[in-house]
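Exercise: predict the fold of this chain.
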Amino acid sequence: MKDPHLLLFRFSALGDIAITVPVIRSLYKTYPQLKITFVSQPHMAPLFQEFENFNFYSTDFSGRHKGIKGLWTLFQELKTIPFSAVADLHGVLRSHFLKLLLTLYGYKVKSIDKGRLEKKALTRSKNKKFQPLTPTCYRYADVFRKLGFPISFDQHEFPLKKELPKSLLPIYHSSEKKWIGIAPFATHLGKLYPLDLMQQIIHYLNKDHQIFLFGAGEKEKKRLEVWEKAYNNVYSTVGKISLGEQLDLMPYLDLMISMDSANGHMAANYGTKVLTLWGMTHPFCGFAPFNQPLDHSLTLDRSLYPLIPTSVYGNRIPEGYQDAFRSMDPKRVIEKTLELLKH
């Protein structure tokens, strides 16, 4: 196929879309003439700022692309793009509908196998099959294999660092401390490490390290500003630098501490070490950050909480598990942080 052009769908969530980045890098490394159009929500665009020969197509699901009529409009718009094949990396109702239309019009479309039955077996309460599932990046790669574009992550290369945002240059030039990113929030309560315990971790680490806090939205911004004001070596990125600038900062971090959430994936995409804290979810679900060893994940004791993982999303907290995440002692997180910073 001469100068192939692939159309990719993935509409949410931020972390799942971040996982596509190393896959796309490997595609470009293997197929240098490839062109990609990625269809997603507009706020996802900064994730792909490193790529050339790449077109980001913004959706408007609250406006012109809302509902069945809106998806028909989106289909009509996409038809004007001279793509040669389609990768549905989402596998939801919207993408299924678009796949149907595209297939009827003769386009080659392949969809992700989410492994729903395997995930159900891993997360169910009875007869749980506790075993590692296929990582999501490999599920994405399999879609491209089915389209005739096999890749190997052996070909993957991390990008060169960009310049730091100008507002961070004074910190860079004045401090010789190691830099730690902390992203303490998650979409669902089952993935959220208790904030009072996280504050204990920040209190200890800020003495000898420069801390950068990551989050989004007004509620998280206010919480992080409290910590920023309370400690000398803590800087909240929320509301000060854009998502694109946060991504430019991440390669300069010596470590990112994250929940099972997007910031861990984004930092890992730049080769930064990531320490992930897992509550109701587990790295066996296939959502560990890219290229991170399993021992960079701290999980709860399953002899005490055998129902873990209770779900893929962290949205199910069984009776008696409400305080399970509190069993992860801040001292354990601090010791693991210091260990990872030494190597």
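Check your answer against the key: The chain has a mean pLDDT of 97.
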